[in-house]
Write a structure and sequence with these properties.
A five-stranded antiparallel sheet has the order 1-3-4-11-6, with helices on one face. A four-stranded antiparallel sheet has the order 2-5-10-9, with no helix packed on it. The chain contains one helix and eleven strands; from the N terminus they run βββββαββββββ. Helix content is 5%, strand content 30%. The protein folds into two domains: 32 residues, no CATH class; 93 residues, no CATH class. With 132 residues, the protein is mainly beta.
Length: 132
Amino acid sequence: MFGVGLRYHGVEECDDGDMDDSDYCSNSCILQGYPQCYESDYGVLNGDPWVICSVDGNTAWVSANTGGTYNALAICQFLGFTTVAQKGGTCGNVCGYCEGPTDCMNHGQMNFDNGGGNGQSLSHTVQWLCSN
């Protein structure tokens, strides 16, 4: 039942199918964070949902459509981090910077140009880095 890649509702919080106890889902199938490609509209002031491009115990690279406005600080705190360490990417697309089609599984460059406003109201900013 545990670690087979299928979540058993009411028994497991998550099941990522591996035995890596340091990722978002523990070996005993307890949720320890959020996985890559997790998407939400939490903290979206207007625009499309944001997505986690990559995440580990120290940082989360979060990205969103450039047409929206996002409370990046609230999003970082929602994900369990304390601050917006870097921000930018005013030229880009989801999980990339001024390049062809990218997404949470097919990353482009992680480039922070410090554009787009402040951590509580980032607009026309496609990416930010959450950390502790």
